Structure formats: structure tokens, C-alpha cells
Amino acid sequence: MTAFVGTSGWQYASWRGDFYPKGLRQRDELDYLAARVNSIELNGSFYALQRPDSYRRWHDATSDEFVFALKGGRYLTHMLRLRDTDQAMANFFASGVLLLGDKLGPVLWQLPESLEFDADTLERFCASLPATAREAAHIARGHDSKVRHPYVPRVRNDRRVLHAIEPRHPSFGDADVAKIVRSHGVALVLADSAGTFPVFDEQTADFVYARLHGPEKLYAGGYDRRRLRTWARRCRDQADAGRTHRDLYVYFDNDSDGRAPYDALAMAELLGAPSPNDSR
User: Fold this and answer.
1) Which InterPro entries does the entry link to (predicted)?
2) Which CATH entry fits the domain spanning 3-279: 3.90.550.10, 3.20.20.410, 2.60.120.620, 3.30.2130.30?
């Protein structure tokens, strides 16, 4: 098992003068964090299509072994609600995503809490997800004018593209959910949301994806050592289920009080995540 542990994003005012030293330039914050954790979840891509030069800059600012998880666009999940997503999917992958190259980790699809489980909708959406970089590039060729600076590479060295889905409606506890996502190799996210949303603790892919949003209040507070050990054990149990060692991706989203980076560092130690300094 290889553990990739980090935070959801890195640009937060509450981190400045605390986790980030006073006077650190905002443009240096990614470099500072990426020197201490081996992965970060990119969340700007959730709110809007990013530009190729941004993906190129993020790629170049990190070490060779660094991995970015990438949050899929809310236009597909929250507005289209997983239906008729072909055009939006093409635009998403044409926006520069593949410039991350070997540093592209799982793509996270976070669902709105109001979205109920529908088997046909989930099946069609999972079937539409590209399983490789070559498939993603093929999909990207269908982009429209909403992508102002498209990047559609000719993929020579193909590689897998992983996907994880984070439902938030209780109806996703239906046994058919795990069957559907498992058939497409999509990971069902293990999430701690301070009791706000249900926990889906089902291993469905050959990797594990966990998101920790806060122990007692959503996006706030910090995890003490006892809670961190509990979640480390829970994540490791999924990664080692069936005597199969799966890569593990863990991201802290309790950013409002500035605790996320500290908790990520502590979790990385518990899980034995490789240090970014080892590859610099």
C-alpha cells in the first residue's frame, strides 16, 4: 500500500501566518505545502473550468512523485445531476487536465446532498467516465467553445485514469450502488462529515479514497490523536481488505480553522506516506 495524504486545496486565509509563515507569498503556498505532503486535492476545478497554463504551473511546482487528486466539475454533478453529461465531460477534460501527466491521481465526483440514487443514471454516468488518458483525450476532442484554451494531447504513453464518487444522500446506501460502481472500478468515497451526511464504508475499487471534513462540525475543527488513529485504521482496513494492498488517498477538508494541513501531516506519519523530500 502506498498512502497519498494531503488537503483539499491550499489557498486559505486562515492558514496564513499560522501554517504558512508570516510573509510567505501567496504564489509560493503550493510549493510550501507540496514540500510537506505528497498529494493535494485540486478543488478549483469543481467551481469552474481551469486553464491549461494553471495545470502546467501546478505540475511544474511539485516533485516528480507528487500526485494531484482532481475534483470533477459541479456543472456535471450539481447542475446536470449526472444526466446528459457528454458535452460537459468533453469540456472538462479539454480544459488542461491531462497536462498533469503522471501526477494526475483520482478524479473525485462529489454529489449534492439532494441527489437521490437512480440506478440507470448512476450506471450511465460511470460508463461515461474515461478509464485511460487516451480515452480522456478522445472525449476531450468533443469540446465546444466554452473551453477558450483547449488542450487535447495525442497520448503516446497511455495510463489509467481513476475515479471516485462521493454521494451524500442516504438512498446511496442501496446495495445496488456498490454493485454499479464496482463494475466500473469507481471508488465509493469513505467520508467523515461530522454526522451531516451518511458514511458509505464499502470497498469498490483497487484503490481507496477518503475525505475527512471535520470531526464535530463540517469543514471545521481538528482531529485529535485518537480520532486520527481511528480513521487511519479504518482507511488501512479498506486498503488491505481481501489481502489486497490498495493505494490509499486521504484528504482533509477541515480548512476553516486552519487544522487541515496539520492533520494531514499527522495522518501521513500514521500511514507511513512517503515524504516529498525523499524525491527532491
Assistant:
1) DUF72, UPF0759_sf
2) 3.20.20.410
